[in-house]
C-alpha cells in the first residue's frame, strides 16, 4: 500500500495510445457534467464557489485518468489532491454562511492541524492513500462541527455522505491491496471503475444537498 501513486497505480491498465484510462475518464467526465448542471441551478455565491471547487477537483481528476504525465509522477496527484483540499475550505465557508455560527477555537485548531499534517505527509513521500484519508477526515469533521445547526434534511444527507465516503475509502483500500490479483485473475478487469462509481454517490449528494441552500 505504501507504493500507491495516483493515477499510475489505479487499477485500470493504461492504454498505450489515446486516453490512458478510458473507463475512469468516462465516469469522471459524466460526473463533471452533473456538477455543472447543479452549478447552473445554484442560487447563491457560496454554493457556486463550493461547486466550482468540486468541479475543478474533478477536472484535474478526469485529466489525470486521460493523460499520464510520467515525467512529473507526483504532480498530477498534487493538483488533484490540493484542489480537493481547497474544496473543503469553500465547504467550510458555505456552512459558515448557512449556520451563521463560527467554529470554536479547538475546532479551528483541529482543522488547521489536519491541513498541516496533510502537507507533512506529502513531504514524507508515502502512499497517496494517507492523503486521501486525511481529506476525508477533514470533510467529515467540517460536516460534524456544523451538524447541530443544520436542517433535518441536510443532517440526513450528511449521514449518507459520510457513509458512502467510507464505502469509497473501503473500495480504494481494497483496490490497492488486491489490484494485481484482480488484473491477473479477472482478465484485466478495470476494478478502479467500481471505486469511481462509488465516489459519484457522495459527490452527487454534496451537490444535491448544497447547490440551493
From TrEMBL:
Chain ranges passing through the membrane: 20-40, 45-63, 75-94, 106-123, 129-147, 159-183, 189-207
Keyword Membrane: yes
Transmembrane helix among keywords: yes
Alphabetical UniProt keywords: Membrane, Transmembrane, Transmembrane helix
Name of the protein: Haemolysin-III related
Amino acid at each position: 500500500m505504501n507504493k500507491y501513486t495516483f493515477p499510475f497505480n489505479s487499477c485500470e491498465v493504461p492504454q498505450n495510445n489515446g486516453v490512458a484510462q478510458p473507463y475512469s475518464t468516462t465516469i469522471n467526465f459524466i460526473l463533471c457534467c452533473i456538477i455543472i448542471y447543479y452549478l447552473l441551478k445554484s442560487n447563491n455565491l457560496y454554493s457556486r464557489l463550493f461547486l466550482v471547487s468540486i468541479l475543478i477537483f474533478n477536472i484535474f481528476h478526469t485529466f489525470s485518468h486521460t493523460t499520464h504525465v510520467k515525467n512529473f509522477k507526483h504532480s498530477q496527484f498534487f493538483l488533484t489532491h490540493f484542489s480537493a483540499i481547497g474544496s473543503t475550505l469553500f465547504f467550510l465557508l458555505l456552512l459558515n454562511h448557512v449556520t451563521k455560527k463560527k467554529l470554536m477555537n479547538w475546532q479551528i485548531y483541529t482543522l488547521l492541524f489536519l491541513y498541516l499534517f496533510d502537507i507533512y505527509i506529502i513531504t514524507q513521500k508515502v502512499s497517496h492513500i494517507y492523503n486521501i484519508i486525511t481529506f476525508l477526515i477533514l470533510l467529515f469533521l467540517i460536516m460534524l462541527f456544523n451538524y447541530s445547526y443544520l436542517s433535518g434534511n441536510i443532517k440526513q444527507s450528511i449521514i449518507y455522505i459520510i457513509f458512502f465516503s467510507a464505502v469509497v475509502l473501503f473500495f480504494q483500500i481494497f483496490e490497492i491491496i488486491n489490484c494485481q490479483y484482480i488484473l491477473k485473475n479477472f482478465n484485466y478487469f478495470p476494478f478502479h471503475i467500481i471505486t469511481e462509481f462509488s465516489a459519484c454517490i457522495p459527490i452527487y449528494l454534496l451537490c444535491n444537498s448544497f447547490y440551493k441552500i
